């Protein structure tokens, strides 16, 4: 997983026109998280969700879902099903990478439905920086863009916000920025 995320970081850097190894090196000492999701079958799938709509606060999510299916992304004003493929991984941009790219890459709202007859499993690898690392876009990216979209923060600040105060959605970074600035002004 670490190797896959390293390759993804190189591709993302190249697509943004920054030093190819910048993000790969940034995440080298990261504290990534692996989570196994288990969704029992549900007699009334239209009345329940396995995981409600959210954006991942982490940087990248590398997800493998079994053949039951249930992952959906919100795109073009509708929930679209991500067809399971045993030979493919789903790669999702999270809030932290959105900040690291100064908003050029967007995190994506997604959810998981439940199945009437079958239980479902998915395996998610969340790529995260070291907790005390400052989340800031690379200077060669800022050189081409005049304004910073988000203030500097640490992954542990965002983790604390999304675990204790706010369920990550498509307005997380705006609300997190307000929370961060108001909590700093109290110190
Ligand atoms: O089970 C899935 O397909 C999605 C899980 C998910 O979104 C998550 O663990 O953050
Ligand atoms: Fe997620």
UniProtKB/TrEMBL annotation:
It comes from the Eukaryota. Residues 30-129 form the Fe2OG dioxygenase domain. Pfam families: 2OG-FeII_Oxy (PF03171). Coiled coil: none annotated. PANTHER family: 2-OXOGLUTARATE (2OG) AND FE(II)-DEPENDENT OXYGENASE SUPERFAMILY PROTEIN-RELATED. This is Fe2OG dioxygenase domain-containing protein. It comes from Acer negundo (Box elder).
């Amino acid at each position: 997983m670490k190797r896959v995320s390293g390759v993804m970081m190189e591709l993302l850097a190249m697509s943004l026109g920054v030093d190819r190894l910048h993000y790969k090196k940034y995440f080298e000492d990261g504290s990534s998280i692996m989570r196994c999701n288990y969704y029992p079958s549900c007699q009334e799938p239209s009345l329940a969700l396995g995981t409600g709509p959210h954006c991942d606060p982490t940087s990248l999510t590398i997800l493998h879902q079994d053949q039951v299916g249930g992952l959906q992304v919100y795109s073009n004003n509708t929930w679209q099903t991500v067809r399971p493929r045993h030979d493919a991984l789903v790669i999702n941009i999270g809030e932290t990478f959105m900040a690291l790219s100064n908003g050029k890459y967007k995190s994506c709202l997604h959810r998981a439905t439940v199945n009437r007859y079958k239980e479902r499993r998915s395996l998610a690898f969340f790529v995260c920086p070291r907790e005390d690392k400052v989340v800031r876009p690379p200077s060669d990216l800022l050189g081409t863009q005049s304004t910073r979209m988000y203030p500097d923060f640490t992954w542990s600040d965002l983790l604390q916000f999304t675990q204790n105060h706010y369920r990550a959605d498509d307005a997380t970074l705006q609300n997190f920025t307000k929370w961060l600035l108001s909590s700093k002004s109290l110190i």
